[in-house]
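Re: Re: token formats

Sure, here are both.
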Amino acid sequence: MSKFDLESYETVDSRIHKFWEMYPDGSIVTDLFSEIRSGNRLEWICKTTVRKVAGGEIVATGWATEYEGANKFAPHNSPEVCETSSIGRALANLSFSKVGERPSREEMASARSKEEAPKPVQEDDP
């Protein structure tokens, strides 16, 4: 497996902004649903479709799945994580990512596991 460089990763937010700059009349549409899987695990599934012009032909799609509670960084935000991943994949399929910079789920998990935990915010005593 290749090593994923988190420093060169372009965020989904950045890709979305680039898309809207290039295609202000386009559309990014998500379809999110869930299924109960074996072991009573809740799986979120999202499909994203992208059009350069609203109502025009679909130029890219992206799929993503996320199990409820599986992401240690956002255990209660599985639908949002799934949707964001799906949008990111659809935009990557439309070339809104660097060539060869499409990390696998395992590479992203490995990169996340190496991130430092957020430091608690200390409030000044008034």
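Second one below.
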Amino acid sequence: MHKGKDNYTFLTAEPIHKVVITMAVPTIISMLVTSLYNIADTYFVGQINTQTTAAVGIVFSVMFFIQSFGFFFGHGSGNYISRELGAKRHDNAVRMASNGFFLSFLFGIVIMIVGLLNLKPLSVLLGSTPTILPYTEKYLGVVLLGAPFLTSSLTLNNQMRLQGNATYAMYGIVVGAVLNVALDPLLIFTFNMGITGAAIATVVGQIVSFIILFYMARQGENIGIYLKNFAPSWNALKEIFLGGSPSLSRQGLATMSLNIAAAHYGDEAIAAMSIVTRISMLVLATVIGLGQGFQPLCGFCYGAKLYDRLREGYMFTVKTGTLFLLACTIIGWIFSGSLIELFRNDAKVISIGVVALRWQLCTYPFGAVIVASNMLAQTCRKPWRANILAAARQGLFFIPLIFILPSYFGLLGVEMCQAVSDVLSFTLTVPIVIYTFREFTREAAAKKTTV
């Protein structure tokens, strides 16, 4: 992938556009395929009835929560690994890789046990109506079994990506997702397993991804996972927390809050918002993948104190992402009705979904700045800034708004909530990122005076 160059040389010396695109393409593919298999679940289950579509949307908030801990351990350990490799402290990176992986797997087991012991109250808490509840319990009961494999797979994926080996990271995610999509119609319709079949397909895909990623972690320049290197310490936990907590903030509780708010307006509202969330995530997956392509360059350059190169990489990422989102806004607005109808041909679901999707489309172009700035702060170990930026879009602003806006605007308040949150998040992001780059300028000046 690097034409014979080692990761350090490639990330710190090759042209910016070449590095970001090379790192981003396999990551974007991973993100898109993951989003597509989430959409596939919604599409195939949507052929059953509106209640099953809503149930998948409700359980998705739990999967989002589980994923957040995979990203927590993956980004927390991976960002540290990236900086240490940039500073040429390889032994520290080796220990952190195993610490992050095993802690992630163990935490996934805890989530699985707690979730299964509280299956019904959890389903109700997430927004299930009496008609949706049976489907939610069936789907969630199976999905929770995959929690340890999902968290640790995402940890491995992010560790490899942040080492500059995004292609290896892509293989496991893509194979598992494709298997999930292939199994969905087979289990749901051919074997007549309904929503339970969709859940089994998801878990099987996650287990296969786990096996492939664990194998890939020992290939090429990747740092392998070995039990002998598992030595958790307070310092390791602190680094994981500082580097990974923004991922928890970024995932947030937005999807769960959205389902609870939509439940007041019926099953159709939950189903519509579930579909819109899937479509939006598919679009944003590309920008997130682009931002994650920037992260290895960011981590290595920050560790090597190459601040000008870091700034150039950030600006390239923002410009490219913004142009892409502008194109998606125009296309999405034109075909919004057809997109919603593709998942559920129900007049009420479509009418609610179109309004919600068009509100979100209006603020899509802000996404590149929000995502790239958050990843910049997270990778460069600016934890408070990273957490504030990460929490803003789907936590700090979204959660209060999802309860305030519907009280004034009813269902429209639910539909417009994400757009308003995006505007406020963008407004918060700009001064923080300007301050961060001024700080880099001061660090660079201090470096010159000490040389």
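The mean pLDDT is 87. DSSP finds 19 helices and no strands in the chain.
- S.
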